[in-house]
């Protein structure tokens, strides 16, 4: 039974992905709908990042983690190299936890 369900879901996923390029020229969306779809994708991604970066399991991960994520976000916004962003965020979080900030 589980193998059948996986195969059905795989076939459905493939069909949806295959239909996208085929229907691109046939279906036109109004500009407002395109703007809303773009904005909703950005909001969804931001919500996913916030939940995964600021929680530890089912609860708030603490202020040290939140500040570390903010420092990493600022570093990324300033277009620092990816390694520098990760190191700055980790060092900030570890330093704050070391001095007792939960």
TrEMBL record:
Task: State the InterPro entries in the record.
Answer: Brnchd-chn_aa_trnsp_AzlD
What keywords are assigned to this protein?
Membrane, Transmembrane, Transmembrane helix
Annotated membrane-spanning segments are 35-53, 60-77, 83-100
**Pfam families in the cross-refs:** AzlD
Report which superkingdom the organism of origin falls in: Bacteria
**Name of the featured protein:** Branched-chain amino acid transport protein (AzlD)
Species of the source: Lentzea albidocapillata
């Amino acid at each position: 039974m589980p193998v059948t369900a996986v195969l059905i879901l795989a076939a459905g996923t493939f069909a949806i992905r295959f239909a996208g390029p085929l229907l691109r020229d046939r279906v036109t969306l109004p500009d407002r709908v395109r703007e809303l779809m773009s904005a909703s994708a950005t909001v969804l991604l931001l919500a996913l990042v916030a939940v995964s970066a600021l929680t530890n399991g089912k609860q708030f991960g603490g202020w040290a983690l939140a500040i570390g994520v903010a420092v990493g976000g600022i570093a990324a916004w300033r277009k620092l190299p990816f390694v520098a962003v990760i190191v700055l965020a980790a060092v900030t979080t570890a330093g704050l936890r070391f001095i007792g900030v939960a």
